[in-house]
Design a protein that fits this description.
Blueprint (H helix, E strand, L loop, with lengths): L33 E4 L2 E5 L1 H8 L9 H10 L6 H15 L9 H21 L7 H14 L5 H32 L19 H4 L3 H17 L3 H6 L21 H22 L4 H21 L2 H11 L2 H4 L2 H5 L4 H9 L3 H19 L4 H4 L5 H14 L11 H18 L9 H9 L5 H11 L5 H15 L3
Antiparallel strand pairs: 1-2
Helix pairs in contact: 2-19, 3-5, 4-6, 6-10, 8-11, 10-11, 10-12, 10-21, 11-12, 18-19, 21-22
Length: about 475
């Protein structure tokens, strides 16, 4: 193996600190078409960037470079084209087409190409759902395998790990689809129905800490399925230098990302439903106080996504209009939380809290302290603005690599967080409730809210009337 980087645990791939692939011009392949600033690559032609990805007997690209380029290259070239070009370059540079191979030379090169393929399959497994990708991968290994028995073993291990990852991904997607399909927006268990149909969160779980832990379970489970490429594929437009087709016509795979946003919305509506359901003001106030405590526990755990969903649910108009109910609630705790999630100054308070949690995570000894679950739609918005705010290519056709370093920094940090193992015991009962408890849609929420506390003005009265007739068939 010699001075080869060992296959590091995949988290060390994305260390965002000091994230700047420094290039040592001495070892580098051709330097043309490059623009460096303080030794950091800030733009280059696509060909040059691909050249930097290809290992030689003497050279291996930095981890940060590999992640950044594999993440962003899909805006310019499809993964199977990229891998095909990498393989062709290796074959040419290492003379792997020669009838007799130079074994000593291939043994110096072999571990490096194996390492690159390992990093690619570990970090972007879904690229390898395509037959072509696996074909290129096997082809290049078959060419070097005669020089060293160990290469066959390595290849089998690599393919085995890849299959395992893809199976997990597929199962995750199937179970997520099921959850979404079973969410009914139909009105259920409406207040005017007999009492036994009513169910409430407090009968399922009345300990805020336990519920916060179970929410964290759901969040980490869902996060684990989101591939880094989904953040980039969400923004694939046509590449201006390739007038013929968008890079990913049929392949816009962002299903896990979308499912995660759906989960956030479901949680908002579930909170609002649970508050508007009880017939008595005192019970509604209890549910509000319970959710305030749950939100606070989420904050302490570092689960900002559930925290934001709970606050959003409480701020929905059908809930916030329940003045008499809120009159019975100790609201001081709620205002503290709201202040944390205040959007002012581009969510300044939240970003400060997030940095604190991220810092705690880096120095953590236990999984419990490692948890950072960002407010997801804000993360997507940040990435969206980064993407819209600067061009993928410079006027000279170079790839704007500086932009992609920033993109890789944001996605890389997320990758580190999504790999945290959930330290809490799973409570199937509570998790089933979170995914399957029926929720009101917006109309249902308004109707439940008016049934709880009568309309205050003519607009509300009219709306109540029309909802009663459309939903309950009453006049």
């Amino acid at each position: 193996m010699g001075g080869m980087p060992q296959t590091l645990s995949s988290t060390s791939m994305f260390t965002p600190s000091g994230f700047s692939p420094h290039l040592q011009p001495t070892k580098e392949p051709e330097q043309e078409g490059l623009s460096l600033q303080d030794g950091t690559l800030n733009s280059a032609s696509l060909d040059t960037l691909i050249q930097h990805l290809v290992p030689t007997t003497e050279y291996y690209p930095e981890k940060a470079y590999i992640f950044t380029f594999l993440l962003s290259s899909r805006l310019f070239i499809e993964p199977h084209d990229l891998l095909s070009r990498v393989c062709h370059m290796c074959i040419e540079q290492q003379h792997l087409d020669d009838p007799v191979l130079d074994k000593a030379k291939v043994r110096k090169f072999g571990p490096k190409i194996l390492q690159l393929l390992t990093e690619w399959t570990e970090t972007f497994p879904s690229d390898f759902r395509e037959e072509q990708m696996v074909g290129h991968l096997k082809d290049i290994i078959h060419r070097i395998a005669p020089c060293d028995e160990a290469y066959w073993k390595k290849m089998n291990q690599l393919l085995q790990n890849l299959n395992q990852k893809l199976t997990t991904l597929n199962q995750g997607e199937e179970s997520i689809v099921k959850v979404n399909a079973s969410v009914s927006d139909k009105l259920v268990a409406f207040k005017t129905k007999p009492a036994p149909i009513q169910r409430d969160i407090l009968s399922i779980c009345n300990d805020p800490y336990t519920l916060a832990q179970q929410l964290t379970h759901v969040e980490l489970e869902r996060l684990s399925h989101i591939g880094p490429e989904e953040f980039v594929q969400a923004f694939v437009h046509k590449d201006p230098l390739d007038g013929t087709k968008p890079c990913f016509s049929e392949q816009k795979k962002t299903s896990n990302l979308e499912a995660y946003v759906k989960w956030f919305n479901r949680l908002c509506y579930l909170v609002a439903t649970d508050i508007c359901m009880p017939a008595k003001k005192k019970q509604r106030a209890q549910v509000i106080e319970f959710f305030i405590d749950v939100a606070r526990e989420c904050f302490n755990i570092g689960n900002f996504n559930s925290l934001m969903a709970i606050i959003s649910g409480m701020n929905m108009s059908p809930v916030s209009r329940l003045k008499k109910t809120w009159g019975k609630v100790k609201t001081a705790k709620f205002f503290i939380l709201e202040h944390q999630m205040d959007p002012t100054g581009n969510f300044y308070n939240y970003r400060t809290a997030l940095r604190g949690a991220a810092h705690r995570s880096q120095t953590a000894n236990s999984n419990r302290e490692k948890i950072v679950i960002p407010f997801f739609s804000l993360l997507i918005k940040d990435i969206y603005f980064l993407n819209e705010g600067c061009a993928n290519r410079l006027p000279n056709g170079h790839v704007n690599f500086e932009k992609f370093l920033e993109l890789a920094k944001q996605v890389g940090e997320f990758m580190t967080w999504k790999q945290v193992e959930c330290p809490f015991e799973q409570d199937r009962n509570i998790i089933h409730y979170l995914h399957n408890a029926p929720i009101f849609n917006e109309d249902g929420l308004y109707l439940a809210s008016y049934e709880s506390e009568s309309p205050e003005n003519q607009v509300e009265k009219d709306r109540w009337k029309s909802l009663r007739s459309t939903i309950l068939g009453k006049t």
